[in-house]
Design a protein that fits this description.
The protein is mainly beta and 135 residues long. It contains 1 helix and 9 strands, in the order βββββββαββ.
Length: 135
């Protein structure tokens, strides 16, 4: 489901789109079902709705040995018609909760809820199915 890896990510929650950035609006927060930790965000962008999630990795950064954790930022354009609703991915929370699951269909449904209500949506991800398909 992921179309790009946006480089390493170190600790914390990278809030994309700074103050005064009118080209990107956060419309959905993807959260862990165990601790409500934000795992990623969907932004309404000029090219469509993009999803960025932060995935923890093992170890530390070789260039920053004082960092607590290292991970990656993964990105997909959810509004891309080539992505099927059944495409999915495993997610892991930075607080140690693993085996979480997100589908493109859930993402699109959350975007529709945002469009209907006009306010940010919290998408609580589910658990990984026993036999994942289309990973």
């Amino acid at each position: 489901m992921w179309r790009a890896q946006l480089g390493p990510h170190y600790d914390g929650d990278p809030r994309q789109g700074g103050v005064g950035d009118t080209t990107r609006r956060c419309i959905v927060e993807v959260v862990c079902p165990d601790c409500n930790n934000v795992l990623g965000r969907m932004h309404d962008e000029p090219g469509g709705v993009g999803l960025a999630v932060w995935v923890p990795a093992e170890g530390q950064s070789p260039s920053n040995v004082t960092s607590k954790r290292l991970g990656w930022t993964l990105y997909s354009l959810i509004s891309d018609p080539e992505l099927g609703d059944d495409e999915a991915s495993v997610l892991n929370c930075w607080r140690g909760h693993g085996g979480l699951w997100i589908t493109v269909g859930e993402c699109r449904a959350s975007v529709e809820r945002y469009r209907a209500k006009g306010r940010k949506v919290r998408l609580v991800v589910g658990r990984m199915p026993d036999e994942p398909a289309n990973v």
